[in-house]
Give the backbone structure.
Amino acid sequence: MTKKIILGTRGSELARAQARLVEKAIQAARPDTGIETRIIATQGDKARRLERQAGRKGLFTAEIERALLARDIDLAVHSAKDLPSEMNPGAEIAAVLPRAPVDDVVVSKHPSGFASLPQGAVIATGSVRRKRQFIWKRADLKVVDLRGNVPTRLRKLANNDWEAIVLAYAGLERLGLPLTHDQVSFEDRRFFIEILPREIFLPAGGQAIIALQVRDNDESTKAIVHLANDLKTLLCLRAEREFLRLLQGDCNCPVGVLATINNDTMKLRGQLFADGSAAPQEAEVEGGSYDGEPLALQLLNVLRA
């Protein structure tokens, strides 16, 4: 029997693009599934000034979760890094799509790259983690605040006396922006891009992962989204989220964490900037691919030792 799913998402260009990827993945696995997409305005979309007052976690997900629990939608689509590490009762991440490139990128007006930015150059980011990483490696840089969706951020770069901004590579890729020869074209401008080394610029937990959230008692929707699930990505996300939960970290906490799986071995790396310290505490642990939760605790203990 044909199953219809109501999918809820934010209205930004990136969120819509991610919702289309989810729809495509589900229908490839279950062609008889009907999908209706419902746009839900979140607190972060309505009042971006709240980001500066209360941090970012939950601002772009809470209303979508409420619609899910109220049965107004059947499936919530989120950027995983926006989700608080403590899941709302009654909801769960049932599946994820394969992880996109996880790296951060510098988008610059100049072809010189991050290391060659002039002394005192202005670089913009909305992430506390990225800010601390930049100051760690280039204390001379002036890092300013940056808000808005990806197109808005690119327009701000074009219209301000900034040298560069920092974005997630996955967002540029999912928006379908032309990326050729280390350059990106946007509207009437061309900017230079440089992939930042993740050894220094460790990403946020959940970065580049699209999370599919359902009600925990909705077995029929779970059965469908499980067909589109990428297991390795889900195992990595669980490890990263458990580390953040134990740390009680969110977007305002300067922390990076990344899990990878190769040949049934999971490596979990963390980077934590303590107050008053320019350099971060860093550590890596490894174990079986299903050992994400104990590895998260082990990583935290090593970092706090």
Confidence is low (pLDDT under 50) at residues 49-55.
